[in-house]
What we know:
The complex is a heterodimer.
Chain A: H1 11-29, H2 46-69
Helix pairs in contact in A: 1-2
Chain B: H1 6-25, H2 38-41, H3 50-61, H4 64-77, H5 83-109, H6 114-122, H7 125-157, H8 166-187, H9 190-217, H10 220-233, E1 235-236, E2 241-242, H11 253-267, H12 271-278, H13 283-292, H14 294-311, H15 314-322, H16 330-338, H17 341-379, H18 385-408, H19 412-426, H20 430-438, H21 444-464, E3 479-482, E4 485-488, H22 489-510, H23 537-544
Antiparallel strand pairs in B: 1-2, 3-4
Helix pairs in contact in B: 1-8, 1-9, 1-17, 3-9, 3-12, 3-13, 4-7, 4-14, 4-17, 5-11, 5-13, 5-14, 6-7, 7-8, 7-17, 7-18, 7-19, 8-17, 8-18, 9-14, 9-17, 12-17, 14-16, 15-16, 16-17, 17-18, 19-21, 21-22
Amino acid sequence: xxxxxxxxxxxxxxxxxxxxxxxxxxxxxxxxxxxRSAPKLxxxxxxxxxxxxxxxxxxxxxxxxxxxxxxxxxxxASGGQRLGESGEAR
Amino acid sequence: xxxxxxxxxxxxxxxxxxVTGVGFAAARWRRAEEMMHLDEWxxxxxxxxxxxxxxxxxxxxxxxxxxxxxxxxxxxxxxxGFYALSYTIMVFPIVLVFAPRLWSxxxxxxxxxxxxxxxxxxxxxxxxxxxALTGILATMPYIALQLVGIQAVLTVLGLGGTGSNGFxxxxxxxxxxLVLAFYTYISGLRAPALIAFVKDGLVYVMVxxxxxxxxxxLGGWGHIFSTASNHLAATNPKTKKPFxxxxxxxxxxxxxxxxxxxxxxxxxxxxxxxxxxxxxxRRDVIRRNMAMLPLYSLVLGFIALLGYxxxxxxxxRAGVKAADGNAQLSVPLLFENxxxxxxxxxxxxxxxxxxxVPASIMSIxxxxxxxxxxxxxxxxxxxxxxxxxxxxxxxSLIVKAGALVFVFALSKQFSINLQLLGGVWxxxxxxxxxxxxxxxxxxxxALLIGWAAAMIYGxxxxxxxxTPGVPGSHWGGSSAPVFGHVIYIAIAAFVLNVVVAAVLTVxxxxxxxxxxxxxxxxxxxxxxxxxxVREPATAVTAAGGTGRP
Lengths: 90, 549
């Protein structure tokens, strides 16, 4: 039987990750935030530069969520027993 | 644009030949002892790490539709077309939440398709067949649209579009697709995974050069935005309203937001996206990728801006007008007018190869669905791995032939309508799949009826949308007024779907209708067989039921 391989994510971390991801989604979903032309950044109206800059922000938020949701691994299966390896592993 | 540009054509042909070589060579890449297994042909051995998965998913999710249709929409309507950017911002934080669970349960039980999971979770063949059929139905027109994208490039290249003989005109497209079909047949998912490296490289080069170089030719971004704004403000003779606007108007905000959200929720319900996820080697790979994939979305943002650059180039406007207002030509025409012809060839190749990669993965994903959830589950319950792989290989050819029929025999408009519908349809598999990852609360029959209700409602609603300026016409778009706001029909249908499923679940519970067996266990949703607690490595295989030797 497959054993539970990881300790569960700490509930506090799960909540923080959830909030970060929610912020990421709402920043794009709540159109009135950015449906305006001022302030401009260079020649770019706000509508455009906000969305283009929000993208890297979302990358950071997603990466933080990834770190928060990562659980300490238990022992890694020895090479010869790995399921994911192709060919010679079996 | 009626003459053939030799330099561009030579570059496109060379890169196509390179990619073809890579496609066939991919059969030998990460070769397994037993290749006649659906895990190998259909999922590339389930062994792709973070790096390969990033290229594969990037090459998979950003299709010719992105390169051609999004800028065309921006060209035609302005800010409204930018929903695609908002959509690709939202998709990764959402998918980061549930995709690892889907990966884990699929890995433990050896599921190849989302419908496999639905069948295992709910013990309902009806529901799994519904999910499989929806996936195949939504994928076919999507593949057809890859062809439409390639056609746009070929037209600008001077091949096709204007020829009198239909067969000669479409010959280049036919050859490209035939070659694609062959290496997909031979190499399976390994072919698009390896070609994705070429594709993504070309796309990045094309976009970086375009974004830096073209504005210098057009008098800077300020000029591009102001020219685009003037053209969008002009009155459309058909609708008597402006073509569009540079900023989303308050009346368009709901449509923009729901289109973005609906598309984001739907993207990873598409079989080809899930195939990309299932091919990952470890659970961690998925989340790490969700944090890295938005880099492609940034590229998409700039590709969308190409629509404005096209609008600010008089020669492109003239070209689009000459082609009966076909805005899909705007990006290829922009390349033709802005770049030296050899670099235009690089840009064209990026679009063509950018269409071939997803078309290949889509046909594999549809073939997996057919093989596992229709052929095996209904017609040949005892089919061996070898038989399943043979069937899937064969079906991948049929699927591509079907897509060709869409483009050649039926009208182009028909494939675009079906693509609109595809987005509405595929979202209706979300409750069964994603809710199923967390809870068995929903009753399987309630989910099936909710799905059916939403499919019918969504189809009827999309049918009733008139083309702007043409009262009484049909299939004119995918947004319609619901409770006073114009919103994306997929979202309205989705709400109906969930409400029907929830209400009927309560009713069916009270009636004690049979629930079906659930073959999954709670801890399997967070499992990663790569990291096991010593002894059970062989037991994992047995419990996983992957059918490996």
